[in-house]
Amino acid sequence: MKQLKLTGFVIFFFFLTESLTLPTQPQDVDDVRITQKFIDDNIGYITIIAFAQYIQEASFEEVEMLVKAMTEYRDKCLADRTLPECSKLANEVLLENICAMEGLPQKYNFSHCCHKVDFERRLCFFHNKKADIGLLPPLPTLDPEEKCQTYKNNRESFLNNYVYEVSRRNPFVFAPTLLTVAARFEEMTKTCCEEQEKANCFQTKAEPFIYYLKALSSYQKNACRALMKFGRQILQSINIAILSQKFPKIGFKQLTSLLEDVSSKYDGCCEGDVVQCIRGRSKVMSHICSKQDSISSKIKDCCEKKIPERGECIIYSNKDDRPNDLSLREAKFIESDNVCEKRDADQANFMAEFLYEYSRRHPELSTPELLRIAKVYKDLLKECCNMENPPECYRHAENRFNETTEKSLKIVQRECEHFQNLGKDDLKYHYLINLTKLAPQLSTEELTFLGKEMVMALTTCCTLSEEFACVDNLVDLVLGELCGINENRNINPAVDHCCKTNFAFRRSCFESLEADKTYVPPSTSQGLFTFHADLCQAHNEELQRKKDRFLVNLVKLKPELAGEELWSLLADFTNVVEKCCKAQEPEACFKEEVFPALFSGIQLVFLVQKRKWNSPQDPASSLQRLPPSPSTLLQMAKFHPFLCLSNIPLCIHTTSSLSTHLLMDI
Ligand SMILES: *[C@@H]1O[C@H](CO)[C@@H](O)[C@H](O)[C@H]1NC(C)=O
Ligand SMILES: *[C@@H]1O[C@H](CO)[C@@H](O)[C@H](O)[C@H]1NC(C)=O
Ligand SMILES: *[C@@H]1O[C@H](CO)[C@@H](O)[C@H](O)[C@H]1NC(C)=O
Asked: Confidence band (pLDDT; 50, 70, 90) for 540?
């Protein structure tokens, strides 16, 4: 019977059948079949995602051409699976088709990838992905009525276009995440187009899934970066920490077996192989659901769902409760006499088990903190096991762990105090200045994005009970974005050092960084500070964006200026805009009066010097405000600046706060 079913689906469900190690459990057979059908049905989206992520410059028309080719290919193979081309790997077929598109490799400069084969080719395409999407045109924003009309008239093309626009702007996000976003986008469109207040509806409904996209995007990039730059071991550790916190009940053996599936999922997803990624994720979720009795009590409802929703549900689910019989201290690694012998027998496994035991006991810690503890323990044993009396030495391990955590706690406390004192806007300017001084080589787009993300992290976390884990996780992800995933950046060597040296201690490394001393600023301002009357028409958000860019460009041009000088120039900028916009002829005011004098190199510094002489008072003192009241804090927590930056069609304000458990993927 089982055999029959299997044969049935192999014939029935089309070509993308690689890596189908035939499952033995009926439930698994079912899962494989459903996944297969899912891939089959979504070949259009899958093609769009892969193509738009690999060749971000490609036009929508070109993407549609490829979709047509891939759909034909699928149909051909559905009809006759014995055709030789139908036994190829899906991603291989896709890349072949991309390379075969006339004129395209030359047009978008990827011929060199097409000249390669197999792994080399995939790698080449992967390296073609650009994290900095500043070169893409801004997303066309449709009026809600227009949006609904387009959806009604041509649903498929409308949705395809959305997936295309989102994918090319998020080249590293895993396909299942993008598919979820697409599904929710359609749901939202359907609902909102029925309503009177369309714009309002789009705004409120878009927020949670855009948030979902951003959070997972950051997380996934960071994990892939860890895999690519630091190797399999570090990704393994990240996953141990996350899974053990989420599923404290799981046994170590079972965790190890689950990790194999998780690890192979990441291979496909990080490389950009969309089909393998979807399969890999389904397999992980199947694994979890088939063993759920011994894994978690919180996922029963999730496991009753079908495959694409199921994964998302599990990712969203809460951490399971700590088993009653789990003591707070794990004596085995601290008190036992033969710790060194056990370590020597199999160090990788020993360390993995330590991380597992520590993580499942400490749901309140962040992932990087758990990795730091593991490193501290490893170093301690290295030291202790060479001593005459090792147990006497590692008996104090817990002190070391606590010291490490306290250090990290202090950093977070300081950051949150900063947030409380400065408030959202000034905090952003602080980070824009700070980050630009650290890495002036990054594009203005990237720097403003990072600054906003930093503020976003603190705004979201600093009022939560899980403050520490939340801040530490999120800020670390922002640093991960700064480090980049895909490129050998020309960046401050000290930053590069922090990015490369130790994954777990990245944050403390960044703490001690100073401005880039090797950076040579451009010799002219290249019109960066030319402003026009259109500033007066700019809406609030647009004006804010211009102000941010102004500040970043100013630091890039004059990195030697001190913080308070920059602050006061920013205030000047604001005043000038205000003044000129009120003038009779704003354009003339911008052109003739203030800016040329203000920003021509030498005068700039002169001006600042003069101001210093004239006002004994520290300009920054105006920033030292009273701590915000609780209701102001609430207001702040509701604001999601970075969503606008992500180039997603809808800029929105959020009402919900982030839960840290969202920030993981498995
Ligand atoms: C095209 O790609 C190659 C290889 O990555 C690179 O060296 C070259 O500068 C690129 N040319 C253009 C015009 O971008
Ligand atoms: C370490 O910190 C934990 C939690 O704060 C505490 O329960 C434990 O007693 C501390 N251990 C030592 C050795 O200080
Ligand atoms: C960034 O800010 C931190 C904390 O406020 C400070 O210690 C550091 O020196 C600043 N870095 C730069 C490059 O300004």
From this structure: confident
* Domain termination site, one of 154, 184, 212: 212
Sign of CA dihedral 234, 502, 347, 379: negative
To 5 degrees, how large is the angle CA 464–CA 469–CA 471? 70
52: which 2 tokens? Answer: 């738009």
Cα(510) to ligand 3 centroid in Å equals 9
CATH code at 32?
A: 1.10.246.10
Q: What distance in angstroms lies between residue 383's CA and the mean position of ligand 3's atoms?
A: 34
Q: Which atom of ligand 1 is nearest to the CA of 109?
A: 1
Q: Is residue 469 part of a domain?
A: no
Atom of ligand 1 nearest to the CA of 112: 4
Assess whether the C-beta atom of 402 lies below 6 angstroms from ligand 2.
Answer: yes
Tell me the pLDDT tens digit for each residue of 288-297: 999 999 999 9
Question: 342: which 2 tokens?
Answer: 């056990």
Ligand 3 center from residue 525 Cα (angstroms): 25
Which numbered ligand comes closest to the C-alpha of 516?
Answer: 3
Distances from the Cα of 357 to the Cα of 167, 248, 353, 361, 374, angstroms: 38, 9, 6, 6, 11
pLDDT of 525 over the 80 cut: no
Percentage with pLDDT > 90 across the chain: 51
pTM of the model: 0.83
Residue-wise pLDDT tens digits, 601-623: 434 544 444 444 344 343 333 33
Region 101-108: what's the mean pLDDT?
A: 95
**Residue ranges lining ligand 3, Cβ < 6 Å:** 434, 437-438, 514-515
Domain containing 537 equals 533-660
Atom of ligand 2 nearest to the CA of 328: 7
Q: Indicate if the pLDDT at residue 201 is higher than 50.
A: yes
Please compute, for residue 49, the number of CA atoms within 13 A of its CA located in the half-sphere on the CB side: 26
Q: What's the confidence (pLDDT) of residue 399?
A: 95
Domain-ending residue, one of 190, 212, 234 = 212
The protein residue with its alpha carbon nearest to ligand 2, atom 4, reads: 402
194 phi/psi in degrees, rounded to 5 = -80, -15
- Tell me how many domains the chain contains: 2
In a domain, 512, yes or no: no
Residue nearest to atom 2 of ligand 3 (CA): 434
How far is ligand 1, taken at its centre, from the CA of residue 55, in Å? 14
Q: Note whether residue 621 is domain-resident.
A: yes
Residue 364 Cβ inside 6 Å of ligand 2? The answer reads no
Q: Is residue 383 part of a domain?
A: no
Instruction: Please give the Cα distance from 129 to 217 (Å, whole number).
Output: 15
CA distance 630 to 462: 12
Amino acid at 532: H
Residue 115 Cβ contacting ligand 1 at under 6 Å: no
Residues 467 and 476: beta-carbon distance below 8 Å: no
What mean pLDDT comes out for the span 479-506?
86
The tens digit of pLDDT for each residue in 35-87 reads 888 888 899 999 999 999 999 999 999 999 999 999 999 999 888 888 888 88
